[in-house]
Amino acid sequence: MLDEIDAVGWDSIPGHPDWYEPNRAARGLRALSGAANLVQAAEAGSQLGGGGIVHGHSAAVFPAAVVATPLLLDIAQRGHPAAQDTALGLLDETLSCYPHAGYTRVAAPDGTAVPICCAIAHHLRDRTDFLVGLGKRGKSLLADAAAHWRFEIRECVADSGDTAAFGILAGCFPDGVHAAEMHFAGAITVLSELTLEYPSVEGCLEACLRVFARDPGELPPGAVLFPAECGDRVH
Question: What are residue 182's DSSP bridge partners?
């Protein structure tokens, strides 16, 4: 665990210079991974919550929180119960806090800039079995993450001037008509109106979205959609 923490170049992760303190991120994670009681866990949490991955007093989250999320999940899974409690509390904060202007996104493998909250939610969904096993608190985290849905387009067909987009939905698309960001080949396009045509059935992630007034050629297979409101979150 310490090797994984030390392998991160925390200084190279961007963050508001008046608020983000990369040394607090590194020290806090090291301390939390080895915490053996409530006091040690609380001290580590104060490092992480006071400028390391979030700034709790101003309710701001930093890009470093995305890198820290899988590490916090590892600590929650393997660490002392007090460390687990602190890690889960910090994860809850990372989703509820808003990022500073200019530091609202992190780079995806395709070069697209993904909203911080959506990237954190993706990491949480990767540990669904573990979080469900924690009971109410873990399920609450997953419910919060579900609001930061992700839809990968697999196939599109024209339908009465609109497009029916078939693909894989992670999270929960809300009722009604919403806007989305479409990420593809390093570019972001805003889709102003789409709705859930039919949801996935239990145990299946396949779903269909109706994208209003768009041609299938505008929605390439492999494109990924995120909630537009997540891209607008600014502290």
Answer: 189, 225
